[in-house]
Design goal:
This protein has 369 residues and is of the alpha+beta class. Helix content is 29%, strand content 19%. It starts with 23 loop residues before the first helix and ends in a 16-residue tail after the last helix.
Length: 369
């Protein structure tokens, strides 16, 4: 009999832990069609092509990932197999596919692109030297599967470009409802996704991959948590967005104009496939069965986080997808599987309609300061 006071050993990945959804190919096709529709509407309005989701960025940072030395064998896998340092691009964003006023407060994201990573590659990224991690400031995905996500995405597509003033009024009401829910000890991803996210500083957030990936022979989710005092002081700190359509961008720029920041990158390994499923992204993996453990530190020095040159280089010239990956961190589960083709389409759309071609960097030597 196992000792409940001792940490459980991580499970080895088995292909049986993944299972294709019914009509997964059709779901992928409809997701591509829906996101293409969003991209076309925004391109028509803005005269520029943006991502189908997380279109609006709030800061683009150059950082350094420092892989921790002395990790135990089960954590020393893939990118984290050896101690070392890698240059990183960080892109802070919010989730909609259109460029909304920040007063329409929606879930926040951060995308990391680690550059110069050697090793066997995941399918579709052969020849690349990058490892991307995409995260949102909540531990679970808004839908259990790709098919279940399609319906709310179609709803979002139907509201793209519709009544931005009304959206601001609705967002204020939704924030009030969310505050009531949180006072009762809960939270509503639905209210937050519709514009009811609290008006807090994006730099104080803890971010999560929400959906799993391989971690060497194991399976894991990752999180990114602020640890430097200047960032932890911003956790749940209010940010003034009144009359500031780009208030989050201004807050990020103001902080890094004078201060740096440090985060811990943490891994949560799957130890119980029933409690920590691969094919239901809406289930929060219990931390009492497997806590998040630090595997690396991310360090960003003071810098300019917004400039025309960085927008061209990162927003226009780079694509972030979990399929830019080592084979040791291959994405798994239906949400991750459909992302491969969907994100390829959005990158292609931007390459086709913008003056800057989307391509994977091999170094960050040319990233504008």
């Amino acid at each position: 009999m196992s000792d409940p006071t001792q940490p459980q050993a991580p499970l080895l990945y088995q292909p049986a832990y993944e299972s294709l959804e019914d009509d997964e190919a059709e779901t992928t096709r409809e997701l591509i069609e829906t996101l293409h529709k969003i991209s076309e509407i925004v391109h028509k309005d803005e005269g520029h092509a943006y991502r189908g989701v997380h279109a609006k960025s709030h800061g683009m940072l150059r950082a350094e990932l420092q892989v921790a030395p002395g990790l135990p064998a089960h954590l020393a896998q893939g990118l984290f197999a050896q101690p070392g340092t890698y240059p990183v691009v960080m892109r802070f964003s919010t989730s909609p596919g259109d460029l909304l006023d920040d007063a329409i407060s929606t879930p926040r994201g951060v995308a990391l692109k680690v550059v110069g990573v050697p090793g066997e590659r995941a399918p579709g990224s052969e020849g690349d030297v990058t490892q991307d991690f995409l995260m949102v400031n909540g531990p679970v995905f808004s839908a259990p599967t790709a098919k279940a996500f399609l319906k709310p995405l179609k709803l979002l597509a139907s509201t793209t470009d519709k009544a931005p003033g009304l959206k601001k009024v609705l967002a204020a009401a939704l924030r009030g409802l969310e505050a009531i829910v949180e006072k009762a000890g809960g939270e509503s991803p639905t209210l937050k996704s519709m514009g009811g996210h609290p008006e807090t500083n994006i730099l104080g957030e803890t971010f999560y991959t929400q959906v799993p990936m391989l971690y060497g022979p194991y399976m894991a989710k990752l999180s990114l948590a602020p640890v430097s005092p200047g960032l932890t002081a911003l956790t749940d700190a209010p940010v003034d967005l009144d009359g500031k359509p780009d208030g989050l961008r201004e807050a990020v720029a103001a902080h890094f104009a004078q201060h740096g920041g440090e985060w811990e990158l943490r891994a949560q390994l799957c130890t119980d496939i029933d409690a920590m499923p691969i094919e239901d992204a809406s289930v929060q993996w219990p931390e009492d069965k497997s806590p998040y453990v630090t595997v690396a530190r991310l360090v960003a020095e003071p810098q300019t986080t917004w400039s025309a040159a960085r927008v061209t280089a990162v927003d226009d010239g780079m694509a972030f997808t979990p399929w830019h990956a080592l084979a040791a961190h291959r994405p798994i589960g239906s949400i991750m599987r459909v992302r491969q083709a969907v994100y390829r389409m959005t990158a292609g759309f931007r390459s086709e309609h913008n003056a800057t071609r989307v391509q994977e960097p091999r170094t960050l030597d040319a990233l504008p300061d």
